[in-house]
Amino acid sequence: MVLDVKNISFSYDDELIFDNISFSVDKGDVLCILGPNGTGKTTLIKCLNRIHEIDSGEILIDGKDIKDLSFAQISRHIGYIPQSHIPTFPFSVFDVVLMGRAPYLNLTDTPKKEDEEIALNALKTLGIEDLKDKEYTNLSGGERQLVFLARILCQQPDILILDEPTSHLDFGNQIKLLEIIDNLAKSGLSIIMSSHFPDHAFLSSTKVAIMKDKSFIDFGKPDDVVTEENLRKAYSIDVKLINIDDNRKVCVPLKTNLKLGDIK
Amino acid sequence: MDKENKEIISLVLLVFLPIILFFASFLMGRYPISPVDVVKTILSPLFPQLTVSSTVNTIVWQIRLPRILAALLVGASLAMAGTAFQGIFKNPLVSSDLLGVSNGAGFGAALAILLSGSSVVIQLFAFVFGIISVSITYLISKAYKAGGILILVLSGVAISAFFNSLISGIKFIADPEDKLPEIVYWLMGSLASVTMNEIIMIIIPLFIGFIILYLLRWQMNILAMGDEEAQSLGLNPSRVRLIIIAACTLLTSAAVSISGIIGWIGMIIPHMARMIVGPDNKVLLPASLSLGASFLLLIDNISRVVISIEIPIGILTAVIGVPIFLYLLRRGYSEWS
Fold first, then answer.
1. Interchain contact, A71 vs B236, CB within 8 Å
2. ipTM of the complex, rounded to two decimals
């Protein structure tokens, strides 16, 4: 197993966010974490690379406890793209991607020629070399997400953690990004992402977890986990699963006939 | 091609501007000295056969050289610290005295003037209290559990205000005949009476500060992406930030200890440099050093040449800096959100 998560719990101040969660991710796996707003998907994800420290349990990368690893060591295994990014300075796309080399450089080093080549290759892999000299602050949401993906490729990790990677993307770019994720997994990376779209689980995932009420209510293969019953439990609405194209499923939320004043 | 040419031109400019200004500044002043005499005087320790009059010798070595060096060093320090602070606090509006260093140093100087008045003591107190005030700011932010950047900046504001009121207290009890004007004059900032000994005293802290910031300049880019991303890229954000704050504090306290409080350099120079070379700190930090040194030297030259009374340089940096800043804002940051 590339990543083993065993019985982890986390509280923020005195409020328990999640309790006793376990799962594992293998090479080439895409794990999609679904769940309603505010259940702690983001918090869970941030525990995996020690941005938050878990209260109990253990997280193992290649059998090593992350508590015993430095931030630099963790960052050579795990790349991370946050849900949103607030830009301050208009760095060039190339400079942003090059930051992915930081895990391999000493504190007082600056990137070398070979680091620049790796950064350039990452841009080429995603087909965005033409953005190289543009300011990353002036890109569209889709382009910027690709730039951050290029940065974590440049980081050469085994595991990518993506917090709602499609949330700022339009309809078409969402599918394109999921296909890129699929390709990256096929090239041997393990990917953990959170999402608000159960459909996405069918498009690219090998594993799905549904998180609700401080824990996973189900975990396993997409076909077994993304069911009408589970989705009803997770989102408190009725959902219809429909087969299209022979073996692809989509989820359609049904109207709840909610009236103003009924909102709880 | 055009873009590369522009880069080369700006690099050449940034390297030669302070050097040209350095030599040109020896020509400025009430007593006229010819360029030939300046070159002769500067080379005379190496070539004893070159002789110049003792008046010229004294003016070049004891009056103009210390002042020129002080302007270059103070300008470079404030600009570099300002650039580093804007980077690590992810905010283009902060300056080198964000964490209270200037008011701390001002209080130290005022206290020293009140107690003794010897220039060595004033310098030492200013330096030490600059460091103390930033340390208090930092410790307060650490004492709170939520200790993020916002808490640090807010405690900086509070500590600044605190030392500012202590300065007012000292002004209130200082003798209005001699001590009070001296305090007020120190707080306005001036390079007029800087001596070679004072400069030698700050060389080591300045050198340490310059080296640390220079070595960490690329990591500053990563800190500017925010703490969580920086950590996911393998950095320990709060540790790197602390090292950079320490280096900036050494630089600003040392600079302020010989010049008094000089505003605006640490705020506008980073912006000017960013417009010329872009936001990558690898280039931006050295560019700020060069521009900061040149800018303060130029302003100091103006302050001692243009009008017959010498204007405190802290006033001039604001009077000249503010319009430049507003112009830059209009031109360059219209696309910023």
1. yes
2. 0.92
